[in-house]
Amino acid sequence: MKRKEFRKLISVDKAREIINNLQVFPRPESLALENAYGEILAGDIVTEINVPPFPRAIMDGYAVRAEDTYACSETRPVELKLLGNLPAGSDAKFKVSAGEAVEVSTGSPIPEGANAVVMVEYSSEGDGTVSIYSPVTVGENIMKAGSDIRKGERVLRAGRKLGTREIGVLASIGKKDVPVLKLQVGIISTGDELVQPGEKLTSGKIYDANSYTLYAGIRECGAFPLLYGIVKDNETAMKKTLETAVSECALILTSGSTSSGAGDIMYRLIDEIGETLAHGISIKPGKPVVIGIIQGVPIIGLPGNPTSALMIFNEFVAPMLRKALGEDKALKKTESGIMGTRFRSEGRQQLLPVGLIRGRVYPADRGSGAITSLSEADGFIKIPSSTEFIETGTPVEVTLFGEVEKPDLLIAGGFCPGLDLLEDLSGLYFRTLFTSSSGGFSAIASNTADIAGVNMPSSDPRGQDGILYNVPTIENMGLSGTVLVKGYRREVGLIVRQDSLVSGISDLPGKHLINRNRGSGARALLDLKIAEFIAGKGISKKEFTDSIPGYASGAKSEVAVCEAVTSGKAEVGVGIRGCTEKNGLHFIKFAEEEYDFLIRKEILETSEVRKFLETLTSTEFASKLPSGLHVYERTGEIISFE
Prior knowledge:
By secondary structure, the protein is α+β, with helices and mostly antiparallel strands. It contains 16 helices and 39 strands. The termini are far apart.
């Protein structure tokens, strides 16, 4: 047979362009959770439950009313009546009143009436009583319902690769089946000289390494490899196998039979039953590569040499697969960084979960029992027992959790659905810590976050209708070296059931309210609106708020507010419009607040922040904002604080 020479060699850039333009489409498929490791999410995962679903103890000890312990000490303990024992997993019901306690274990539900847990080390049991030797504060040693993951929160984004941490998050929210992207890739090894590993190696034969290295590489990219075995250098057999693979796969990889030797027939078959796009790349190793299409299915013929095949796969094919699956970033096992904030160790050897953002390392530990300590970490650092403090700027080595996609920006502050839209449209990967507006200001002050989403109102004559957002707080905290970027406006109001008779703030007395948490902008805004309502009426704010049952409550999200109103636990709540429409509730607007972004000036010119700001001021963002949110003439305006 006449030897056919290579066609004109193409450049590496041209080869990459051809391969990147190949139409390779994954399809969605539902997999059981236990089989989903390593796969790519086909859609956003939004939790339908709180995690934990109930307030739970994080220490062994006694559930008490914190106020019953304030006066105790080691020499003058307080004695409480012991009502019984409430182990983890129990559904027993107790109600703790003044002077009473219930024994609990780590993981136990907190009984009604209790608001703190005294560690067992600071107690001693008597005959039906327990003595407490150390006071506790409200919420101490308790993990609140939803403090780890809140109902309605997007916990994983479409395109996320499912590792051990993500599988744990999915299990913790009760996901049994997971929507993943299935990109089936066929693998065909060709050559009379090949035998499968495990078979006897006779003269002139070699083991087929390419099938297995390619299989592992495809799995590492998140695609589904399908082995077609070894095909001899026989045109009929090779054609039959190709036709089968074309009917079953979105992409076919072959190895061997791509050169111009007398026995190399792959490129001729592609010419015969399909179309050859390129034959030969100007690269070493890996020159004999064929790129073609058969019946609409791309086929890439890799060299038979295992090293060359793997080099070409890693250089050209792997990035294409990751891109097709929405996961195209290169990853390393370890990475150097510097601490972005000061950290105090526990005085013992510690493996600290951390996040990596542009070379800066931040602790990602949310506390005992929080699955998101891992899901929001990129790896961990080893802290020896001799280290008490790690100062800001200290070089550290991060051991990565396998293949991780590092976030582009760390954003703290108040929750807003507009953030999800900014993330989606910008193409950036956010790590979000919903700490309330007050927590956002603190995160910027401590140099922990890049950006804070804030909506904190203050009574100030400089503002519209006497209310100025965020600027007074920045000034009072002395947050120099920052800028406030004006964001968008949000409709805020009362949330009630459709049949409610509540029509405004004047109807709140006597109605059970579910308020927002302290430090949130919504709670502060309600306070200002109440003060505005009662002005000149001869009653104090305290008198008015005391007449509202539940005014002292503090839900951490609009979702929790809507759930309380829907279930009848509360008659009225406070939140933004979008949440009500999703839950079939009625919304009574009482204000439009300003949701802005506080940014550290030192990162203002980074490509990530520039992209963030470009998206914020884009027409597409303005057109896609959910109901109750809208941009205005000041969106994108930058206010500098020196």
